[in-house]
């Protein structure tokens, strides 16, 4: 793994650790997920806007920008869902004897 790849995953892990710490404070996972998703959307809107000179310029590329972010999120979500499907018992340890 290159240093650039390591830095990428280190940043991602730092965000996940922050989310996990909020759950440790008693916030439900769904609430943390909703806040996490909102913050990512807000950051990506800022990131997108920062590259333009005006709101009108940003408005011209609004649709294609949203489409690009949605497609990339879907690709990453599908990749991670497949990983969790493959490694479910490793990632999600549960007491199997308590299930119906």
UniProtKB/TrEMBL annotation:
Designated name of the protein: DUF3144 domain-containing protein
Organism this protein belongs to: Methylophaga frappieri (strain ATCC BAA-2434 / DSM 25690 / JAM7)
Lineage: superkingdom: Bacteria
Entry-linked InterPro entries: DUF3144
